[in-house]
Amino acid sequence: MGRHRSDPLGIARLALVGLAAVLLLAVIVVGARALLSTFGSEEPASGAASTPSARPSAEPSAGPSAEPSTPRVPTVRVVCRADRCPVFVRVPGGDVLIDRDLARGEQASYFQPELDVVLDDASTVQVFENGTARSPGPAGERQAFSVKRSADQVSDRSVSE
Fold first, then answer.
1. Cβ atoms 127, 78 nearer than 8 A
2. Do 79 and 150 meet the contact criterion of CB atoms below 8 Å apart?
């Protein structure tokens, strides 16, 4: 009466579909765990970056235990006083240390012997050169200047290292 044919690929197809479903489920689980771990680790990181004590530094760590009695004074410290403060700092003829917008209250400190600083709006930031406050510029004025580490700080540094 009719031809009955057994399809040898029928079971293999079911096995492949089942395997694909298991792999898809595994990928979804791994992705969900990675996403949840990102949310969990983002909270402390963003909290640390938005606090006023966040201080990026390109110099190798000379931790607080190196000289506990006398605090090191940075060559340049920039403190943002507006919602957005575009800042550019680099070593002359060398590495760019920062080229981004700082948020209100965020600060950046650098200890290199000589630095070039460019501020898109000099009135939005407070700048300290070797621990001394620099007078703020007029609103909307772009300022570019160089800062050298003061002689007494250079000699203190060479003694401590």
1. yes
2. no
The helix (H) or strand (E) run that includes residue 103 is strand 96-103
Residue 40 is predicted with a pLDDT of 60
Among left, alpha and beta (phi > 0; psi -120 to 50; other), residue 97 is alpha
pTM (global) more than 0.85: no
Please check whether residue 79 is in contact with residue 126, taking contact to mean a CB–CB distance below 8 angstroms: yes
Burial class (CB in 10 A: 0-12, 13-18, 19+), 89: buried
Q: Can you give the pLDDT at residue 122?
A: 87
Residue 84 tokens read as 């957005």
- The pLDDT tens digits of the residues spanning 23-60 come to 999 999 998 888 887 776 443 333 333 334 444 444 44
Judge whether 116 and 92 are in contact, CB under 8 Å.
Answer: yes
Spatial separation of the C-alpha atoms in residues 95 and 98, rounded to whole Å? 9
Own/partner contacts of 65-68, CB < 8 Å, gap of 24 or more, are 66/160, 67/160
